[in-house]
Amino acid sequence: MAQDTLDTSLNFEFWLNKAVAWGQATTLESQQDVCLHLPQLQKFLQQIYETLKHMDFHTAIQRFPLIGQLLGRLCWNPFVIGYDENQKILMWCLCCLYCSEPWNTIELEVNIWIRSLLCHLLSSSKLGLNEVGTVSQALGYTSPDYYPKLLKNMVLSLANELRVNHLNGFSIGKTIPDKQIKAMSLLCIPLLTLPDILPLLEALLTYQGDESKEILCSEFLEGVNESFLQKKIALSESAVLSLWLRHLPSLEKATLHLFENLISRHRNASPEEMECFIKDSLLPQAACHPSIFRIVDEIFWNALLETNGTSEVLTVIQVFTRCFVQAFQKNNDQLKFPLKSYFPYTSPSLIMVLLQNPKDLPRGLWCQHLNHISEILKKIVEDQSTQSCRSLFEHWFLFIHFGEWADIAAEELLMLRAESPATLLWLLAFYYNPHDQNQQRTQTMVDAAEAHGHIMKLFGRTPLSVKDLQDVTDTRHPRIQRLIRHLLLNFLLLSPDGYKIAQEFIITQTDEIASELLNLIARITYRWNRLGVETQRPAKLAKDLLQELQCYTMKSEFL
C-alpha cells in the first residue's frame, strides 16, 4: 500500500490532474486537498527539477509534453507557492525550460510565458491580498505582511542556493548548470530595482561557474550596472567589483559616467566635492584590482590626450588618484598587489617617491624630495634606451597622477626655499611640455627661468597693477604660458599685494584661461586644507578668492 502511494505521488499525470482539480484553491474542499498533498508534491517537484536540469528545452518537452500546463497551474495556486520551498523549486524548474538563445517563434513565446510566471512569483502586484488571505492566515501571517516575508525568504533561499550549491537542504552532487544560472539572470532583469531582490542579484554577480566563459547574460549585467549608476540599487563593493571584472563594457560605462558628470554636470564642484562623488562611485575601491585600475587609467589617458590636458581633466585624474591611494593603503593588508602591477611600464623608484604623502614629510624636506623626483625623471628622459614615445609619456602620465608635487614645486619656487630653482623649473617644464626634444627643452628652460625671474621681481613692485601681471604673460614665451600662469597664480596668493588684484586680473582673461586659473586655485586650497594650513593667511585668502570668483562666474553665466 505504501509502495502504491509512492508510485502515485511520483506520477506526472496524477499531479497534473490534481493541479487542474485544485485550480487556485478557492473552495474549502480544494484547499484541504492541497494541504493534504503538499509534502508529496514538493518531493515530486524536486525530482522533476533534478531531471530537467540535465535537459535542454526540446528534450524536456519530449519527456514531459505537458510540463508547461503543470508548472503554470501550480504557480497560480497560493497554497502551493506558500508551502516551504515550493516557490523556489518552481522557479528553478522554469529556468530549466528557458531558452537562452531561442531559434523560433515557439521558443520565443515560451520565454515570454516563463518571464510572466517569474514576474508573478516575485511581484507583489501579482499576488492579490484576497487571493492569499486564507493561506497567509494558515501560515500565521496577516495579509499585509504575507508577501514581503514570503518574497524575502524565497530570495534569500535562492541566494543561498547559489552560494552552497544545494537544493532544499540536500546535496545535488554537482554545481548548478550554467544554462540555469544564465536563465535566472535574464529573468531577473525586470525585477532589478525590487529591494528584496538584492541578495539574489549579489549572489548571481559573485557566482562562478565551471567554465571560463561568462555565464550571466549581458543584458542582466548591463541592467544591473545601469541601475547602480542611476542610484536605483545599492550594491556591496564585492558585488560591484565582480560586475566590472566580468563585464568590461559596464566598467567602461561607469568610468565615463563618472568622468562626464565631473566635467559637465559638476564642473563647478570643488576637489573636496569631487572626492565625495568619486568615492561614492566605488571606482577607486574597485581599482585596487590592477585589471580594473589599468582600464580606468586608459580611459583617463585618452581623455587627457583628447583634451590636450585641460586643467579640469588634470584635477579629476589627481583627485581620483588620491582616492585610489587611500583605498589601496586601506586594503593593503587584505589584498596584496605589487605597485608595479598598477603602473607596469614605469620606474618603480619613481612610483615610490611620487606616492610619498607631503603631509608625512617635514616641510623643510619638500625641496629635497622634489629634487629627487626631478633627478629620476631627468634620468629617464635623457636615457636613450627609454626614448620610445610610449615610455616617455607613461612616466609623464604617472607624474600627472601625482600632480600635487608639481603644485608644491611652483609654490617652493615662489617662496625662495629651493636651493636649486633650475631643478624645480625643469620639473614644471616637463609637467607642461613632456613632448619637448633636447633642443626644445633647453629653450623651454631658458624661457622658464626668465619668466620666473620676472615674477620674483614683482614681489618688490609697489603699487602692483594688472598691467604688471600681463607683462609677464605676454607672447614672448607662447610655449610655456601654462607654466607661467601656474607660477603667477602662486605669486598672487602668496604675495602681500597680489591678492588685492587677483580677481581683477583673472576676470580679464579668456574664459578658458580663467577656468584654468580657477581650477588651479581650487587644487591649491584643497591641498592646503589637507595639509592643515587652512588657518594661515594665504590659505584663507585663496579660499575667499575662489568663492568670489565662482560667484562672479555664476553671475556672468546667468546674465
In short:
This protein has 559 residues and is mainly α.
List the helices and strands and how they pair.
Layout: H1 2-9, H2 12-22, H3 28-52, H4 57-63, H5 67-75, H6 78-81, H7 86-97, H8 105-122, H9 129-138, H10 143-164, E1 166-167, E2 170-171, H11 178-187, H12 198-205, H13 218-229, H14 237-246, H15 248-265, H16 271-280, H17 283-286, H18 290-306, H19 311-330, H20 348-355, H21 366-382, H22 389-401, H23 404-414, H24 421-432, H25 438-457, H26 466-472, H27 481-494, H28 498-507, H29 511-530, H30 537-558
Explain the overall architecture.
The protein is mainly alpha-helical and 559 residues long. Among the domains are: 12-126, no CATH class; 151-162 and 177-246, no CATH class. It has 30 helices and two strands. It has helices at 2-9, 12-22, 28-52, 57-63, 67-75, 78-81, 86-97, 105-122, 129-138, 143-164, 178-187, 198-205, 218-229, 237-246, 248-265, 271-280, 283-286, 290-306, 311-330, 348-355, 366-382, 389-401, 404-414, 421-432, 438-457, 466-472, 481-494, 498-507, 511-530, 537-558; strands spanning 166-167, 170-171. It has a two-stranded antiparallel ribbon with strand order 1-2. The longest helix is centred in the N-terminal third of the chain and has 25 residues, at 28-52. The termini are far apart. Residues 1-9, 124-147 and 166-173 have low confidence and may be disordered.
Strand-residue proportion: under 5%
Spatial shape: elongated
- What's the quaternary structure here? single chain
Structural class: mainly alpha
Give the termini separation: 92 Å
Low-confidence parts:
1-9, 124-147, 166-173
Q: Could you tell me the radius of gyration in angstroms?
A: 33 Å
Per DSSP, the total helix count is 30
GO biological process, one term: cellular response to oxidative stress
Protein name: Fanconi anemia group C protein homolog
Subcellular location: Nucleus
InterPro entries: FANCC (IPR000686)
